[in-house]
């Protein structure tokens, strides 16, 4: 016997069929937003690791708007968004205050 997920049944009611269609579209939209969020956070972290102050600041400014919009849409909790912004802000600030390595 093959172990795995049982085959999904099609909903009988019209409302159930419509909900299934909507779930596909909503899942795609949420996945896209979640990916955009992660990418913007990674861009800031890469710039910080590279030691590029200007690039880190510009990526952080872009990241703030992306994080806020994703949190407003309910993809992530507002506290998670605030926590991520705070941690990355601290990293960018410490990078800006460090003397440039020559």
Structural features, described:
- This protein is an all-alpha fold and 102 residues long.
- The chain has helices at 14-50, 53-72, 78-97.
- It is elongated.
Can you describe this structure in just a few lines?
The chain has helices spanning 14-50, 53-72, 78-97. The chain is an all-alpha fold and 102 residues long.
Question: What is the element layout, followed by pairings?
Answer:
Blueprint: H1 14-50, H2 53-72, H3 78-97
* Overall residue-averaged pLDDT value: 91
Unreliable residue runs: none
Q: How much is the radius of gyration in Å? A: 20 Å
Q: What is the makeup of the main sheet?
A: none
Total helical segments: 3
Which class of secondary structure composition applies to the elements?
Answer: mainly alpha
Taken from the alpha-carbon principal axes, the silhouette is: elongated
Strand-residue proportion:
under 5%
Report the span from N to C terminus.
Answer: 65 Å
Q: Tally the beta strands.
A: 0
Helix content: over 70%
SSE sequence, one letter per element:
HHH
Structural features:
102 residues, elongated, mainly alpha, 3 helices, 75% helix
